[in-house]
Amino acid sequence: VAALLVPLVALGLYLHWGASDKVELAREFAQAPHSMEEMTARLERAVQAQPDSAQGWYFLGRTYMTQERGADAARAFERAAELSGRQPEVLGQWAQALYFS
Fold it and tell me: What is the rounded distance in angstroms from the CA atom of residue 35 to the CA atom of residue 79?
C-alpha cells in the first residue's frame, strides 16, 4: 500500500507546489510558432503564467512593436521596467513605444 501511496502523494505535491507550469511553458515554446499571432498568444500566456518575469514582458513588448501595437507595447515595457529595476534598454523601448502609441 505504501509503495502506491508515496508516488501518488509525491505527484500531488509536485502538481500543487512544483514547477509544472514552467514545464508546460517550456513544452509550448519548444515548437516554432506558425504565425506572429501564435507567437504573441504564447507570450501572452507566458506572462500570465509568470507575471513577475521581466524578460517575458520585454519580449511581449517587442512582439507588440513588430505588430505596430504601440499602446500594448508601452504597457508591456512599463511592466518590464518595473520588474527589471528600470534597465536603460527597457526604458528606451518603453519611450519608443509611448512615442508610437
Answer: 25
Confidence bin at 20 (pLDDT 50/70/90): low
Average pLDDT rounded to a whole number, residues 52-72: 95
1 SS3 class: coil
Rounded Cα–Cα distance for residues 94 and 8 (Å): 47
Domain boundaries of the chain, sorted by first residue: 1-31, 35-101
Question: Domain 35-101 is classified in which CATH homologous superfamily?
Answer: Tetratricopeptide repeat domain (1.25.40.10)
Angstrom distance (rounded) from CA 31 to CA 45: 15
Backbone angles phi, psi at 22, to 5 degrees: -70, -35
Helix (H) or strand (E) holding 54: helix 54-66
Distances (CA, A) of 16 to 29, 82, 84: 22, 28, 28
Grid coordinates of 89: 534598454
